[in-house]
Design brief:
8-stranded parallel beta barrel, TIM Barrel, Beta-galactosidase, beta-galactosidase activity, about 600 residues, Jelly Rolls, globular, Galactose-bd-like_sf, single chain, 6-stranded antiparallel sheet, glycosidase, 3 domains, alpha+beta
Length: about 600
């Protein structure tokens, strides 16, 4: 057993002072086969602690249906950390932000039109309690007080950036303690008056999140935490990417210099991120600081971290390790490196793969999902869907002259078809977008394919229902009587394929081919020439691609491949100038922009 506490201005572990040098590594963004590799590299860099969030929606995808296996096997992750002698800081929801879909909150909460989030609202707290009943008993045995690696756990996350409900925060604290949490509890917020006032809990250690100016940030923290160890719980040493924006980078020497300043001041530090990983599937979130100024996060969560998206050390890794060596006096000898540092993962460029089979979307909607009939076009959450796409179909009488189609509050991107002919895209934007068309005398079928690009994960617009959230008008007339097909694409095995078409595509389509592999290795799929969609490898959703960039390739970890034939499916929304995808041995990004 171990005792970890805040005593005076120091952290104490087993009666000895300890300065935490921690790095964020999210198990849910890494295939389990690579968890040990990433944690070994953390330790080899001189870190003594690993920090991870716990996303509620990853563990309870449907109400009362929990999963703690595969990539969700947090207990396995904790065991590996313990085996490697690493301390663990756990930040266990209900909200995590993390550029993760809905900030880790389950989308099904939004099926209740009256739901209030992140406050002392009983229906919300009832769901949190049910989740904690499952989660906390799994974490409790791993506490240092029980001989495990967990030394501290967080209450909520950056709550001062959202609200000021102290009763809610105290409820979460008590809920954790009632379920056996004994380790040090803490909060983390930005270093400003409002944020620290709104997010702190009396008697609970407050920590700060920032990327620069540690002296002034810690000075502000000291105004609210008169005594106790100083800790930067999120040192933003890189940043995340949005679709359509340049890739963010930050100079390695600048990162190491700010880090060294904090170490010299005696502060403990948690790198956010040490290794970012990948937003596989539909797990990436989005930002919107102004209403409908919507910025979805890319699939790669590289974060310009010390370990890149694939787990390989960057220049930042070396600079950070040198800073640790200067401060601690630890010498990183070749012998130590050989013992701790895993060999680089093999990468193989498997070459060009021609997509030989094709299945158009509209002809097999009924095979992919059961239609829901509704007078109005319901949002995803009202039909029991969390992620992916949703298709709305109705009939319009004719004739009608050219008129504008208005999709009121589209979330987030709609493709509009009239009699299966593509007429345009309506995207979520600050200024309303419309498309226009005529309706012939015999009437027309209107079909709208809406993509959920990721729920907002930070700020005042968290309540981000997806699909068509209000209604559809042609001119001033609302359209009623809809057939709705949810397309979460959790299972793509029902798709029927024919020969791949050569002509220009008129509707979204699936393509399939099989990649023959003699030796599975890390690889990347280059989606140049394709427009927008999703790629599946052996049924595993790699995530979104988009020609807007900055991301041009999708990372395929070796454990997703198998010897022999591997099924590759591409769901393309628009069309392609290629009939093939290319497997390469390196990622491709567009440009870079310096982050602060």
């Amino acid at each position: 057993m171990g005792i970890f506490e805040a005593r005076g201005d120091q952290f104490i572990y087993d009666h000895e002072p300890i300065q935490l040098i921690s790095g964020a590594v999210h198990y849910f963004r890494i295939v389990p086969e690579y968890w040990r590799d990433r944690l070994l590299k953390l330790k080899a860099c001189g870190f003594n602690t690993v920090e991870t969030y716990v996303p509620w929606n990853f563990h309870e995808p449907k109400p009362g249906k929990f999963r703690f296996g595969g990539m969700a096997d947090i207990e396995r992750f904790l065991r590996i950390a313990a085996e490697l002698g690493l301390h663990v800081i756990v930040r266990p929801s209900p909200y995590i932000c993390a550029e993760w879909e809905f900030g880790g909150l389950p989308a099904w909460l939004l099926a209740d039109s009256d739901m209030q989030l992140r406050c002392h609202y009983k229906p919300f707290l009832d769901r949190v309690d049910a989740y904690y009943d499952e989660l906390m008993p799994r974490l409790a045995p791993f506490q240092c007080t029980k001989g495990g690696p967990i030394i501290a756990m967080q209450i909520e996350n950056e709550y001062g950036s959202y609200g000021n409900d102290g009763r809610y925060l105290r409820y979460l604290k008590d809920a954790m303690i009632r379920r056996g949490v004994e380790v040090l509890l803490f909060t983390s917020d930005g270093p400003t008056d409002a944020l620290l006032q709104g997010g702190s809990v009396p008697g609970v250690l407050a920590t700060a999140n920032f990327g620069s100016s540690p002296a002034s940030s810690f000075a502000k923290l000291r105004e609210y935490e008169a005594e106790g160890p100083l800790m930067c719980m999120e040192y933003w040493n890189g940043w995340f990417d949005h679709w359509g924006k340049p890739h963010h980078t930050r100079d390695a020497e600048d990162v190491a210099a700010v880090f060294g300043e904090m170490l010299a001041a005696g502060a403990s530090v948690n790198f956010y991120m040490f290794h970012g990983g990948t937003n596989f599937g539909f797990c990436s979130g989005a930002n919107a600081q102004l209403h409908n100024h919507y910025e979805p996060t890319a699939t790669s969560y590289d974060y310009d971290a010390p370990l890149d998206e694939t787990g390989q050390p960057t220049a930042k890794y070396g600079a950070v390790r040198e800073a640790i060596a200067r401060h601690t006096g630890v010498s990183f000898t070749p012998a130590v490196n050989e013992e701790l540092m895993p060999a680089p993962a093999e990468r193989i460029a498997y070459g060009v793969l021609e997509m030989q089979e094709q299945g158009n979307l509209f002809g097999q909607l009924d095979a992919l999902s059961e239609a829901v009939r509704s007078t109005v076009p319901l949002p995803m959450e009202k039909v029991g869907q969390s992620y992916g796409f949703i298709v709305y179909t109705t009939r319009i009488s004719g004739p009608r002259p050219m008129e504008q189609l208005h999709v009121q509050e589209v979330r987030d991107r709609a493709l509009v078809f009239v009699n299966e002919a593509f007429v345009g895209v309506i995207e979520r934007a600050e200024k309303e977008q419309t498309v226009s068309f005529e309706v012939p005398a015999g009437g027309a079928e209107l079909r709208i394919v809406v993509e959920n690009m990721g729920r907002i994960n930070y700020g005042p617009y968290l309540k981000d229902r997806k699909g068509i959230t209000e209604g559809v008008r042609l001119g001033f007339q609302f359209l009623f009587d809809w057939s709705i097909h949810p397309l979460p694409l959790e299972d793509v095995s029902a798709i029927v394929y024919g020969e791949a078409a050569v002509k220009e595509q008129k509707q979204p389509f699936f393509c399939r081919a099989h990649l023959d592999v003699e030796r599975p290795a890390d690889t990347f799929i280059d989606m140049s020439g394709w427009t927008k969609g999703v790629v599946f490898v052996n049924g595993f959703n790699l995530g979104r691609y988009w020609s807007r960039g900055p991301q041009k390739t999708l990372y395929v970890p070796a454990p997703l491949l198998q010897e022999g034939a591997n099924e590759i499916i591409v769901f393309e929304l628009h069309g392609t100038t290629e009939r093939a995808i290319r497997f390469t041995d390196s990622p491709m990004l567009d440009g870079d922009v310096k982050s602060q």
